[in-house]
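Open question from group meeting: does this chain pack into something compact, or does most of it stay loose? Before anyone orders reagents, we agreed to write out a predicted structure and look at it together. Recording both the input and the output here so the notebook holds the full record.
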Amino acid sequence: MTHELPPLSARFRRVDSISPSELQQMHALFSRFYENADLKKFIEDLSEKSGVIMVREKTEAATLRGFSTIKQVELDDQGRKAIGVFSGDTILHPDYWGDRALKDGFVRYMLSVKARMPRTPIYWLLISKGYKTYLLLANNFVTFYPRHDSPNDPRLASIVDQYCRALFPRAYNATTRVLDFGDGSQCLKEVVAPITDELRALNPAIAYFEQCNPEWQRGVELPCVGEVSLNLLWPYLAKESARFRSSAPPPGPLTTEIAGDRMPSLADLARQLTESSNTPLSTSAEERA
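Structure tokens returned:
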């Protein structure tokens, strides 16, 4: 008889609201799957972030099953101000691989950023220790870099250069476009997400990740970027907000900022994005031209 796992929920937490016990839980989960996961280094990295999306079981114990750290940075997009949302340390317990809670929490966060700045280009910035993180980008974004079927994109390559030079000036190699933090850096434990010959053959995105970052097993990271447009988010938002409308009471006052540990509901965000502006909201390359 198969044991059914408890469902998960995701919440955004500001770094300054995280308790010592929660910090210990985060580090314990992280160190299960990463080598060289020094607690001091983990705390130092976390202190530089603005918040964390925490994923917990919907149980009385509320066991932590995953998290993703977040930092916002300002960028220049061909002379135009843009915002980058950087994802730092990210982990989800293998029992829940394929679960949507972390993804849904991150989408709500990105939508809330877009709702506050509907005409500002927004980018997801991430560095990939392993192919599973890279696939979150490749499988869900229309416009992203690097990618196997469009390896040359000067605009997005410039975004990668900017945030890597700002956040990781000592580790970034602008020629190879990888981040090398040196021997002893955090890396996935071998059993977590190996790249097999079968995976390389079946998925060109996985093969390309390894081509771009051949030393990933040593902890070398591949910096990536994905463009967040409402064209990308609307299908998800429309489906989820329809579900909320059919089962939930009318939303209360709109929340345009993430305060404390509350994220706006998808129904709130759908209404806000629809009513906030009479101008086109998409930030696709075609509309900016």
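Observations to bring back to the group:
The two ends are 57 Å apart (CA to CA).
Confidence is low (pLDDT under 50) at residues 248-267, 272-289.
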